[in-house]
Amino acid sequence: MLNIRVLNIIGLVMIFLSFLMIPSSLWSIFYCLEYTLQDQEFFDFIAILKSTLMSFLCGSLLFLFTYKKKKKKQRELQPRDGFVIVTLGWIFITILSSFPYYFSFTNLSFTDSFFESMSGLTTTGATILGHSSTFQIEELSKGLLFWRSFTQFIGGMGIIVFSIAILPMFGIGGVQLFRAEVAGPVAEKITPRVKQTAKLLWGIYVGLVLLQTLILKLEGMSWFDSLCHSFTTIATAGFSTKNASIASYNSSVIEITIIVFMILAATNFSLHYLFLAKKRFDYFKDEEFRVYFIILIFLSCLMFFDISFNGHYGLSFNSFKDALFTTTSLLTTTGFTTADYETFPNISKVCIFFLFFIGGTAGSTTGAIKIIRTLLVVKYLSYEVKKLIHPQGAYSIKIGGNAVPDNVVKNTLGFYLFYIFIFVIVSVFLSFYGFDMITSLSASASSLGNIGPSLGSVGPTDTWGHFPPSAKWLISFCMLLGRLEIFTVVILFSRTFWKA
Fold first, then answer.
1. Model pLDDT for residues 127-145, shown as the tens digit of each residue
2. Which is deepest, 324, 359, 488, 489, by most CB within 10 Å?
3. Which among 106, 117, 109, 135 has a CA at the least distance from the CA of 469?
4. Residues forming beta bridges with residue 398, ordered by sequence position
């Protein structure tokens, strides 16, 4: 049976979402007043306002109809409730977040609106707009462009995590929500109190956004573009206000700045906390970060030499910059582009395909499998080889000098198998639509890894708009699976879960 309080909490989150829509409408008002020609801006202001009211009304009705006074001892949620709240909450929020697109001047279908909304909230960055699309990204109103970037800002740390800093005011515990949202083999709270942890995480998150906004402004971007790109960089998300993404600015300084902030955003936020609050520079003491840094440097150099000697670039600063930017963007699952990497030689394209799976570090805003899991699987394989050679030997799997419990190892192996299984199944399904092998494989990997641009017909210069509606729904589901790290969603399809 579904706990009625689950719907009550989701109602609260929907109300909260309606307030998050207000800044987008303010941008529309500003540009309406600044430029008298903006008929489209006013039209989209009405669309966002209508969406705000609908979100507030739906959330209020759901909250009021499910509101029940509870005794103090009954206020703590059960773990199973956390999974339901996170998954259903994300779906409801995505539906409501799609209304600004659906009611806007673009006149998108609900499928396209939902796809763009899911891509934003899951920080995937796949879009049906731009390039060969009917609507170019630059043609969108400022209010809608801001909402598009802001959904990625919301999804970066998770609207559920954001909400648990506020829900305790209503007497609702948040530990189960935090565990369901921040899934991973080493997910842990920075502080004993979840509310305080959420505030610290968001404090670091917002601080990085503001710092990057200021730097990008000083480097020549407008305040609007600086803020929007900072939202999507720190969220490792990748939506841009330009069709050509970061390449449209043609600025090495801007590109290097974004590289630095992508690296920071894909780094475990606990390490940022230790550096900022405790003055401890423990980055390179962390085993996962060291592996992350080595992969970044190695693949950047490999791609640099490949495009220099086997491609049309030649040895130059630009070739190194494009190799570094592409590697960083895909490793961190951000998805910004400065070059059409589909024109890169084969070695680079193979590296790019594998980058769709790796991801950044645990405890960051990045997607995909994450390095800690791959590191754990490699250590497990080494452990099994040692056990085969010396069956009586006493061995343990360690990360950072600490032994990893067996249940964590099993959970990680299960996640890996689930991830690859879903990747294969989705690739096969996409091939039924007539897509070639490269498009099917890379689109499946990209959507599940929350990356965005891919290879084949969904490369860095293409959009996802040509996908059939049913394929867009399949990809949207993959984005959700990837963002909530599979188990949070899959567990709801288990009969055992509902019988518990």
1. 998 765 567 888 888 999 9
2. 359
3. 109
4. 403
